[in-house]
Write a structure and sequence with these properties.
Layout: H1 8-34, H2 39-42, H3 45-67, H4 75-99, E1 102-108, E2 111-116, H5 122-125, E3 142-145, H6 152-163, E4 176-177, H7 182-188, E5 190-191, H8 192-198, H9 202-212, E6 221-227, E7 232-238, E8 244-248
Parallel strand pairs: 1-3, 2-6
Antiparallel strand pairs: 1-2, 3-4, 5-6, 6-7, 7-8
Helix pairs in contact: 1-3, 3-4
């Protein structure tokens, strides 16, 4: 058998290389599809990712280093058990991360809200008015609007639901196309000059962003808060048509 001529350090190194390759593939999937920047940190996935990588890169190779001994009887079984434990931990970690992935960015009155898959009750999701509002995205969050209902009974229902801890952004039956809420949203949007004033750290970040987007200026770009699970971001939008330009890691408060 090949492992009869292999040292434990070489075996652990091979295991580490395999684990690192898997970690890179998982990381690419997370950062390009499920958690596109800058939503990774905002959705609280950084801790989950560190745990996942820690398990993948440390648990398996470390156990291999401990138990491996050239010529040991039953070595193949031991390695198979280690691989199974590592695979189980990886699958569980991926499950936790996927249910926490962002699926909607909901524009509500004067702000945006980042909604994750686990935030939505399947019964509420099934009440979405359009097919896109009834499914959970696997390719980054979809942008939608959620205007406050004009009907008094529905408005009271939303207020009651909010008091119970389920605000309108968690009720897909009120979702609409983002374009339909743009006029009302822009009434609450604020100039970049105000953001620079209320947050001294915003200036350098905004200047770097504006330098990369030469068509954007302090006068044609406005902003609104973007509320997320772990932190708040700043969403930049076109001051004329409400087109979303990107979210920046700036505290809007």
């Amino acid at each position: 058998m090949p492992h009869k001529r292999m040292s434990r350090w070489k075996a652990a190194s091979i295991h580490l290389c395999i684990s690192a390759t898997i970690a890179l593939c998982v990381g690419a999937l997370l950062f390009t599809l499920w958690y596109p920047p800058p939503y990774f940190e905002a959705a609280g996935a950084s801790v989950l990712m560190l745990l996942l990588i820690g398990v993948d890169l440390v648990l398996g190779p470390m156990l291999t280093l401990i138990v491996f001994r050239a010529g040991k009887k039953g070595m193949s079984f031991d390695l198979a058990v280690i691989g199974l434990v590592q695979a189980t931990a990886l699958v569980y970690g991926l499950h936790v991360i996927t249910v926490a992935r962002p699926v909607f960015i909901v524009a509500c009155v004067d702000r945006f809200n980042l909604v994750t898959a686990e935030d939505l009750d399947p019964k509420d999701l099934a009440q979405g008015r359009a097919p896109a509002f009834r499914t959970l995205s696997w390719t980054g969050p979809r942008v939608v609007g959620a205007p406050v209902p004009t009907d008094p009974a529905e408005r009271n229902e939303v207020i009651k639901s909010g008091l119970d801890g389920k605000d309108i952004q968690l009720l897909p039956k009120y979702y609409v196309d983002y374009t339909s809420v743009v006029p009302a949203l822009l009434k609450h949007a604020r100039p970049l000059a105000e953001l620079r004033r209320i947050n001294p750290h915003a200036g350098p970040v905004l200047d770097r962003w504006l330098a990369r987007h030469t068509a954007r200026t302090d006068t044609n770009t406005v902003w609104l808060p973007l509320m997320a699970r772990k932190t708040s971001l700043t969403m930049l939008v076109d001051g004329t048509n409400g087109k979303i330009l990107g979210a920046l890691p700036i505290d809007p408060w």
